[in-house]
Structures are given as C-alpha cells and as structure tokens.
Design a protein that fits this description.
- This protein is an alpha+beta fold and about 450 residues long.
- About 65% of the residues lie in helices and about 15% in strands.
- The strands form 3 sheets. Strands 2-5-7-8 form a 4-stranded antiparallel β-sheet, with no helix packed on it.
- It is elongated.
- The model is unreliable at about 1-5 and about 10-20 (pLDDT under 50).
Length: about 450
C-alpha cells in the first residue's frame, strides 16, 4: 500500500484516540470549575448585578434633575386672548384680541433638587438591603452547589469502587464456575452447584452493567453542575479512601452558633426581616411633606417670518421652592402601613422557623456523623475479619478440607464486607459535607 493511502486511516485513528482522552478532574477542580461555569450561578450573579443598578436608580431620586427642551409651533390663525372691552377700546364686556406671531419658538432649561423627600431616602435604604440580600443569595447558591457537586463526585467514586470490587468478585466466581464444571464432569460435583455458580457470575455481570449505566448518568449530572459540555469525557482523579477529619467531636450549641454567623440563608432571612421594618417606615413617610428646590431659564420668540436675525429673544427665569403635602388619599397610606406590618410579622415568624429548622437539621446531622464514624470503624474491622476468613477457607479448599460452596460463601461475605466498607466511607464523606454546609462553612473554591 502506498504511504499516501496509509495517512487517512492513521489520521482517523489518531483523532479517535485524542477524542477519547478523558480529562482528569479532582473534587477541588470540579468545585473551581463550577464557580465560573455553572449556569444557575451565572444567572444569580447577573441578578446581583441587576440589583446594584436598581439601587443606583433609586438613589437618583435624591440627586439633582436637569432637563432641557425646546419647541416650534406654526399657527395658521393668530393666538387669541380675551380682555375686558374697555381695555380693547370696544363696548363689549369681553373682547377677543389676536396676538403673537404665527411662528413661535421657545427653549427651556429646568432644574430641580429634592430638599426633603423622606420616602425616596427610605426607599434607597431598602434598595441597599435588596442588594445585600442578592449577595447573600449568591453565596448561598455557591454553598448549595458545593454540596451538590461534592455529593455527586462521591456518588461516582462509590460506583467506580463498587464496579472494581464486582469485577474482582467476577474473576473469582468465573474461576469457581470453571472449577465446578470440571468437578461436575468428573462426577465429583452436583449439577446444582454448577447452576448456582453460573447464576452468581451472571448476577455479577448484571450488577456491573447496571453500575456502569448509573455511573454514566451521574457523570452527565456532574458535568452539568460544573458547566461542562456533556460530550466531554471526564475521569475522577480522587479515590474513595477513609479520611481522618479533625471534626470528630461536634457540639450542637457550637454548631448552631457557627450556623447563625455563617449560613447565608439565615443572613437572607435576617435582612428580609430588617427590610420589612423599613417598609413600614417607607409607607409612613408618604404622610410627610416633600420639599423641592426648582429653577428655570426660558427663551422665546414669535414672528410671522423666518428672519431669525431680526428675532427678539426675551429671557424668563426663576428659582423657588415647591412644597407638596398629602391631605387625604382614600386611606391608601393607612392600608400600605397595615400591609407592611403584616409582612414584618410574617418575616419574623419565618426567621424563628428557619432557626428551629437549622437546629433540627444540625441535630440530625450530628447524630448521623457519630453513627457514620462508628459504622466506618465497624466495617473496617469486618473487612479485616472477612479477609482472614476467606484466606483460611481458600487454604482449606486447596487442601481438600472444605467444599467449593463454603469457599464461595466466604468470597461472597468478603465482597459484601468490602461493599459495606465502601458505603461507610461514602456515608462519612457525604455527612461531613452536609454538616459543613449546615454550618455555612462550605463554599465553592
């Protein structure tokens, strides 16, 4: 074959190999990628930016307002004013008099500065509260994402480890099936033993297939949380190994104190409660007068022609103060005050309920934390004993002192002990993450 004919197949093989290269990702890297790639977090970050602009808009109500406008009017009939007849030299009680030019030009520059607008001032403070609330919501979303990604990562590690254990068990059971068939052919084993070994092998293959499928689905979910393309192949670089945490002993009172200080959802509820009190003040402020300094400068001219050089532009200007005082508005302000007071009661009750909910969550997680550590200790010891039992049974079988069925039972007990050990490690890690989250200590890196 010509060298040129070999280039295309080799190129395809190279491209296929590069496409299948999986990207290794640690848990820390997954959290870091989610901090910039997660779409829900991007939406919330934009919402935080949007609220900052709302605050700027609200503050503008207390700043000077300057506007300029101009206009041109063409009258087909001159403007008419009404005067007493004696002023116009007639005997009529009221005489209409045509005045002005048919072309009218005017230009105005007007300025105003609020001197006293308590409603706008308090609304500005409320907008600042909304901005702080959005910042806390962003931080709370990051904490939730950190929990979701960590648990999803541990789920995948657990499934990978389970697949590895099942594959090891499959190798041992395939050997047992081969031995059983050989013994059956020699008349030294029952057909039932062969059938049992065959069923065990097929069950393991089914379990491995099921775990592979779940692992693929979990990978898609993890990539979505990180903001990655779901076609990108990933490989987890961490392992599901026991970890010595420094937080072996938690106290509920200390954990609750930390949660009150660090949890962002509790901060959101506290800010909402404070803002509800401010909304009452905003409603009451509508009863207060509003004082505004105003000024204006105007130029105007009228004529019947377009000889602008002959126009006269007399100026008109003034400065002054305007005062607006509400007298009666159909009890609207009273209704708004009542609504704000109801809202404050709701937020106060919500804050108390959230505190109780957090306390219950922490108490439950602390109990789970103690149990997970105890289970891990027990399962570690169980695996050690199951390994000793399997080794002893394997020696007895090789020396003809036990049956294949007894060895199979020992192998099954060892596999189950290792699976339980993996589950205990997984549970400890997940409970630790959720306990950190419940105290407000978990964030995206």
């Amino acid at each position: 074959m010509k060298p040129s004919n070999l280039m295309i197949p080799l190129l395809l093989v190279a491209l296929h190999g590069s496409a299948q290269t999986a990207k290794k990702i640690s848990l820390a890297e997954a959290l870091s990628m989610a901090a910039t790639g997660n779409r829900q977090l991007q939406i919330q970050t934009l919402e935080e930016t949007h609220q900052r602009e709302v605050t700027r808009e609200t503050k503008s109500r207390l700043l000077p307002n300057v506007a300029a406008n101009g206009g041109y009017l063409r009258y087909f009939d001159r403007q008419v004013i009404f005067l007493p007849g004696s002023f116009a030299g007639t005997s009529k009680p009221v005489q209409d008099v045509a005045v002005g030019g048919k072309n009218a030009f005017n230009g105005v520059v007007a300025a105003s500065q609020p001197l006293l607008n308590e409603t706008a001032r308090r609304q500005t403070k409320a907008a600042v509260y909304d901005e702080r609330i959005q910042r806390e919501k962003t931080a709370d979303l990051k904490a939730n994402l950190g929990t979701e990604i960590s648990v999803a990562y541990f789920d995948m590690l657990l499934m990978q480890s389970q697949i590895a254990l099942h594959q090891q068990s499959l190798v041992r059971n395939e050997k047992a099936l081969k031995d059983t068939r050989s013994l059956f052919a020699q008349g030294r084993s029952l057909k039932q033993d062969t059938l049992r070994a065959f069923i065990a092998v097929e069950n393991l293959r089914s379990s491995i297939s099921y775990l592979h499928n779940n692992l693929e689905v979990a990978g898609i979910q993890l990539k979505r949380l990180m903001g990655m393309d779901d076609t990108t192949a990933i490989e987890l670089s961490d392992t599901l190994a026991p970890e010595a945490f420094a937080t072996d002993a938690y106290e509920l009172a200390d954990a609750m104190t930390t949660a009150v200080q660090r949890r962002h959802d509790m901060a959101v509820q506290k800010l909402s409660t404070e803002k509800s009190g401010l909304e009452i003040a905003i409603a009451k402020a509508e009863r207060l007068p509003q004082i505004t300094a105003v000024g204006q400068y105007q130029l105007q001219a009228q004529a019947d022609n377009y000889k602008f050089g002959q126009y006269v532009w007399p100026p008109t200007s003034f400065v002054g103060v305007q005062i607006a005082m509400p007298i009666f508005n159909g009890n609207r302000i009273k209704a708004k005050i009542s609504q704000a007071e109801i809202r404050r009661k709701q937020e106060t009750i919500g804050q108390e309920d959230l505190a109780q909910s957090v306390r219950s969550e922490l108490a439950s997680l602390l109990s789970q934390w103690k149990e997970s550590n105890e289970q891990l200790r027990i399962q570690q010891r169980t695996v050690e004993l199951a390994e000793i039992s399997y080794t002893m049974m394997d020696d007895r079988y090789r020396n003809g002192l036990s049956t294949r069925l007894e060895l199979t039972d020992a192998e099954l007990a060892l596999t189950q002990a290792k699976l339980n050990h993996l589950q205990a490690i997984y549970l400890q890690k997940v409970v630790h993450v959720r306990l950190q989250r419940a105290q407000g200590l978990l964030q995206l890196q």
